[in-house]
Give the backbone structure.
Amino acid sequence: MSILKSRRFWTFVVAQLVASMTLVFGHYVPIDPGVQTLVISTIEGLAGFLIAAYTVDDTVTNVAALKAGKSLQSLKRD
């Protein structure tokens, strides 16, 4: 699978961009550091959850495809 077509990769990239933008925004605009921490930790936690869910989904899809391929091979032999 190409890395540029990976949902996990793009989820990670977006999470890092949001975290970086939050830090830069907080540097130039006086906001509470606790709010920055809350936003960054929420985004990173959500990204981690999505990456885990995408991994499970990809694994289930791959297992189903392998089972379908094996059943097709067994039909061809008969």
